[in-house]
Amino acid sequence: MHIVVCIKQVPDSAQIRVHPVTNTIMRQGVPTIINPYDLFALEEALRLRDRLGGTVTVVTMGPPTAEDSLRKALTYGADRAVLLTDRFFAGSDTLATSYALAAAIRRIGETFGPADLVFAGKQTIDGDTAQVGPGIAKRLGLLQLTYVSKLGAVDPDGRSIEVERRAEGGTQVLATRLPCLVTMLEGSNEMRRGTMADALRAAREPIVVWSAKDAGIEDIGKCGLRGSPTVVKRVFAPTARSEKAALIEVRPAARDTADALIDALFTRLPKLEAELIAAQTA
Amino acid sequence: MTEAKPQAAAAAPSRAGMKKELPEHFKAYRHVWVFVEVERGQVHPVSFELMGEGRKLADRLGVELAGVVLGPPGEATQAAVAECFAYGADLAYRVEDPLLADYRNEPFSKALTDLVNTYKPEILLLGATTLGRDLAGSVATTLLTGLTADCTELAVDQDGSLAATRPTFGGSLLCTIYTLNFRPQMATVRPRVMAMPERRERPIGRVVTHPLGLVEDDIVTKILSFLPDRDAGTSNLAYADVVVAGGMGLGAAENFQLVRALARTIGAEFGCSRPVVQKGWMPSDRQIGQTGKTIRPKLYIAAGISGAIQHRVGVEGADLIVAINTDRNAPIFDFAHVGLVADAIRLLPALTDAFARRLSPHNRDKLAG
Ligand SMILES: Cc1cc2nc3c(=O)[nH]c(=O)nc-3n(C[C@H](O)[C@H](O)[C@H](O)COP(=O)(O)OP(=O)(O)OC[C@H]3O[C@@H](n4cnc5c(N)ncnc54)[C@H](O)[C@@H]3O)c2cc1C
Ligand SMILES: Nc1ncnc2c1ncn2[C@@H]1O[C@H](COP(=O)(O)O)[C@@H](O)[C@H]1O
User: Fold this and answer.
1) Does A110 sit in the ligand 2 pocket, CB within 6 Å?
2) Do A250 and A114 belong to one domain?
3) Which of B250, B326, B335, B340 has most ligand 1 atoms within 8 Å of CB, for mutation?
4) CB contact (8 A) between residue B347 and residue A254
């Protein structure tokens, strides 16, 4: 069984810096982590490998410093790490990102054996679109299972997989064929503590580093800003309400203030008091 | 290596520049579409919210608004088509096929992609639900067009482009995204972000039907069963009239009892900010904001919440926002209607008492009599 897991290195803090000219996010100087949602995908992949045998390859597209996240993934027990890095990728939106990652996954298959399963996180905490997973699936012609809360039977020989998928108002139990792409829901498992042996191996293990060309990408025009149909035109701070609320300083033990406040609320929402009372008697 | 060939009749050019001129073959793309999500016979309310928004965009552009209904033959699909018109659509596109009875990516993305390639809309809106996001991601990739997720504001700018605004990484910024050189311009919007438009009984108008063109054997993924949520409806946060929420300012898990107590007293739902969920102080279905629930209550009481943009966009639809915060410079006071500079740990119990007295049987009778 060969499982590929897409992980993204994301900034750890809510500190925001936006490039004044290109309006893209500047990541320098902010501490980074593996996108938390991707850890559920990675853990699920590791469990599957432990159960069925095989290897787990983690892949990321990012700057050379994304190597840190790949090494972290190796400490958890991933077998191999591929870093897709090239200045042509700068400014990629989800369509360009899925193009590059799909190419890399195809090349991973050619180099290390075809992938039976590709995992992605539900979404990233910086891009936050949940689009890259479906994008990769479509480009690779893989069946797509998103919002998976639980993996059921996986049969590498019979080429089948069963999953529970979160849907609106319930859970779908789905069966499909391998290879496919799965995006894992948060909370579906808990990331293991890596072993000492994996930590030692992670420090030494060579990372496979590929440029766009190495990954077999011929058309650079499909990458980065040029390959991105969406354009961020404006980044701005939200405006304050035009009539900014007067601030009421409330002293401790403010029973009177509470009463006065409730009077004020019910004056502004005249029907609310009757509705609340009606709801209580109902 | 070649890229998977787009099925789109109108394949996108291989290079996207920042140039403004729309390629000639995209000029035929006109009209605004809303994907109408039908789940087990029910239209998801987000589809009507989008219909309201789509109506405004269509009027601004001087084009038609269409609802897209994919479903099995039968009453539910018919009813969903009728609802499109009741919420303001000029026409509806309908694909009726037994294979569309339950959501699966393959038949739904084929149906929607075929419709787009045949009838060419300039704007396509979907709800950012598990279904909408699954579908939108595939369809946008097949069409090789832009998709902006989880928008909080949609507008048409001077040159007729869709300006899709969403919060961006970090705690305080919004960004406006355009799909300049590709069509359709696709966007998803989360439930409750847009106001529910008024429903008006209108006759069913023009309906365009289109075949699915698949048989069950073409579809690889099978649905083995559907397990409805047992606790469906217990947390009615998104649709509650009154919501009380707590943030990191409450300092400790046990202080969330104060939030629950006030909520119980006034018959409200309770919620929280994201770090509270991350701390494990509240379950994740109570999170309010960009990555949690969007709410539109009549009254929202936020205690110890700073008011970061990801929280703000989830609550801005509230009629009246009351914020309790010790820091008079907290960003939440920029959008609250009533700002209380106070220690929430002391003020919440005082408020609970005051509400309890006010809503007591004695007062109830006074109000009734
Ligand atoms: C991609 C992304 C998505 C996100 N999605 C969400 C989301 O869906 N929902 C969400 O809420 N956040 C979300 N966030 C996080 C958001 O940016 C903020 O970090 C978060 O909302 C802050 O939560 P808070 O206000 O509870 O905590 P803090 O920012 O720590 O604020 C605590 C506040 O409490 C006040 N305070 C302290 N003591 C008291 C007291 N005794 N009484 C009263 N007030 C007191 C402080 O003055 C402060 O204003 C997201 C962030 C990112 C990057
Ligand atoms: N640059 C990237 N490198 C590797 N995987 C990525 C990258 N961007 C997104 N992904 C994967 O796609 C998922 C969804 O990302 P997003 O569409 O940004 O919310 C993430 O959880 C990752 O698994």
Assistant:
1) no
2) no
3) B326
4) yes
Question: Interhelix angle for B130-143 vs A94-112, to 10°?
Answer: 80
Residues B245 and B352 in one domain: yes
Number of compact structural domains in chain B: 2
For chain A, the domain total comes to 2
Q: Which domain holds residue A86?
A: 2-227
The answer for B322, left when phi > 0, alpha when psi is -120 to 50, beta otherwise, is: beta
**Beta-strand relationship, A208-210 and B42-43:** unpaired
CA B207 – CA B201 distance, rounded (Å) = 17
The minimal CB distance from A281 to the residues B104, B334, B364 is found for B364
Residues B181 and B241 in one domain: no
Regarding beta strands B91-96 and B206-209, do their DSSP bridges make them parallel or antiparallel, or are they unpaired?
A: parallel
Of B188, B218, B248, which closes a domain? B218
On chain A, the residues whose CB falls within 8 A of the CB of B266 are: 276
Q: Are residues A217 and A245 in the same domain?
A: no
Together in a domain, A169 and A195: yes
Handedness of CA B330, B336, B341, B347 (dihedral sign): negative
**What is the pLDDT tens value at each position of chain A, 282 positions in all?**
999 999 999 987 555 565 666 656 666 667 889 999 999 999 999 999 999 999 999 999 999 999 999 999 999 999 999 999 999 999 999 999 999 999 999 999 999 999 999 999 999 988 788 999 999 999 999 999 999 999 999 999 999 999 999 998 899 999 999 999 999 998 889 999 999 999 999 999 999 999 999 999 999 999 999 999 999 998 887 777 777 777 887 766 566 778 888 888 888 888 888 888 888 776
In which domain, by residue range, is B214 found? 2-9+17-218
**Closest-approach residue (CA) in chain B for A266:** B299
Beta strand A55-61 with A80-84 is parallel
Residue B130 falls inside a structural domain: yes
Contact, B70 vs B109, CB < 8 A? no
| A58 and A108 both lie in a single domain | yes
CA distance A204 to chain B (A): 32
Residue A140 lies in a domain: yes
B223 belongs to a structural domain? no
Nearest residue in B to A147, CA atom: B130
Is the model's pTM score more than 0.80?
yes
Q: Which residues line ligand 1 (CB under 6 A)?
A: A 14, 125, 128; B 169, 171, 247-249, 273-276, 287-292, 304-306, 308, 310-311, 314, 324-327, 330, 343-345
Does residue A234 sit within a domain? Answer: no
Using a CB–CB cutoff of 8 Å, tell me whether A281 touches chain B: yes
Sign of CA dihedral B288, B290, B292, B293: positive
Identify which of A3, A4, A7, A8 to mutate to test ligand 2's pocket (most ligand atoms within 8 A of the CB): A8
ipTM surpasses cut 0.95: no
Same-domain check for residues A213 and A130? yes
* B129 and B202 assigned to the same domain: yes
* One-character DSSP codes across B170-216: SSS-EEEEEE-SSSSEEEEE-TTSSPPPPP------EEEE------G
Is B310 marked as binding a ligand? yes
